[in-house]
Batch of 3 targets.
Target 1
Amino acid sequence: MVSINWCLKTKNGIEMVNPNDNMSNSYLKMAEESLEVIKKIGKNSKLWVASTSYYTMYYCLYSIMIKIGIKCEIHTCSIEFMKKHLPNLYNNKDISLIKVAFKTRNELQYYPDVLIKDNDLKIIKEGAADFLVKTKDILTKITEKEIKQIKDSLTDKKHEGKNK
């Protein structure tokens, strides 16, 4: 299991960058495109439904992160950031959904003989659409004050890790 402190110290982990609305919008567009692909796949491929559903959610999350000014190339660190620093934006159900989607995608990609229930895929697939809607709402409502609070809490965590 990863921790925020580990993610802050690890290469390609969490780092603060300048907020970038253009990049944020690009990731949101990628999420929308991924959602369209899910609709075209239907039930034809469990692997691609799971993978595309997960990436729809991940691109949404990354859109928020880039808007705030957070960069991260380690998916588990991005999800941990979501859990620890975005609880006012995403609730426990959202966090659980992206974790399940991540796990399901990994299981199908790396262990193709694993049995995944059709209902689990349905929940992930439907959840991806809801996650996108919620993210769009967050992007329109997040304030500079909230962004500053999130970055300040991450800065505090970074300094706390150095003092240990």
Target 2
Amino acid sequence: MAEGTLFVVATPIGNMEDMTFRAIETLKTADVIAAEDTRHTVKLLNHFEIKNKLMSFHEHSDVSRRDEILDMLRQGMKVALVSDAGTPLISDPGAELVAAAVQNGIRVIPIPGASAVVTALSASGLLKDGFVFEGFLPADNKARKAALLRIQSETRTMVLYEAPHRIEKTLEILKDTLGAERPMVLAREMTKVYEEFIRGSIGETLVRIKDKPLKGEMVLILAGAEKEEKIVTDEEITAELKSWMGKGKTKKDAVGLTASSLEILKNRVYQISLKL
């Protein structure tokens, strides 16, 4: 029996022209397409004249639907997993299915393409020292504030998703927890006709969207917190060096260990070590 394969297929986040040739071919040749919302995916398939069997697989699907797909894969079938838009599993369903396929020794092949996270980041102008993706915040206001307090001191760029009906309240909480002056970008309707990037501080963005009806899911890009400069005196470095050397470390090793433990440049420690 031929080996079954699960294809994780990225689809456009808006503009149909962002669909890749490989993704189209994969959907055309798949035995089954497992879709987050078949009513949504059928529009994509009709656009590219793809006529394949569709089945639903979403966050509310029970274990029996997952097992049904696994049985298909065990029988040697090719199953393509798609979400409503973008790359599956990124704040979309599918993680449990992919994990189960891997655990069962079934081949999983990603078909890369559009992703709202990467698209927004690439045009944000705020990407620095990596980024942290938080996805959708909890719906409960108290839990949402707790989640933001947890990342309050994060120095990397942060990416959040938010829905239109919650955006004003979320910005209010962001203002309270991260400060009104924190730089941010609100990206909406990306790759579509009314694509918009609202740039400014959290406070400025809140003023701009106040009482302004916004449509579509949004990506919020938040600048990371400023790194606090660590002040370490020469005396502290000397004491740390002597401590490591007193434990039997060579001067060379002590330099590396001191730089690491005090989180400072190795060259500065080396220069001080020359005086010992």
Target 3
Amino acid sequence: MSEKAHYTGHRQRLRERFAKTGADGLADYELIELLLFSALPRGDVKPLAKSLLARFGSVGAVLSAEPRALAEVEGAGKAVVHALKLAEAVSLKTLRDQHQGRPVIATWKALLDYCKATLAHQMNEQFHVLFLDNNNTLIADETQQKGTVNHVPLYPREVIKRALELSASAIILVHNHPSGDATPSPADIEMTVEVCEAGMKLGISVHDHLIISRNGHSSFKSMGLL
């Protein structure tokens, strides 16, 4: 009984601290603890929270980890995996809603936050394309390709074909570098040129190409590469 009271008291104190200070007042492992409370209604979840953080490195990386990888951590059963992936889905939906149907220039920070949350902690490269109308309002965000740890193919004709299907006037290319280095590679630059050339013939502009990594991001437009 004393053990149960101890854990119950800890959970209540943690909830009260979060209500008072928000996420800034809690350590990363404590935020994960809060997410685990619903999945594991009894017992001490602190060791599991710390194990997840040690395995993946950050709260964002824990949430974006593949279910199979999460399940490899001792104590992370189906309920835990479900709770963490639900938290990720809600977070991404919130960020997406901040710029969906609005001019991307007006919501650039929200858009960048969304791209980081979606891609920064992925273990393999992914290529997303943001399709915009002639008012630079976001029509759609679609994953075009998924690749390996250091390569993802993109087919310019397929990108432009999809833009035409959506009646898009412009696009923003977004992909991640799992290595942590957001510096564009020669292949990234060459591929971007190919997409620009393919789009130019049909009146579709490439506004930017963002490379996202866990250590930051780079913008082709800001770097003078577009």
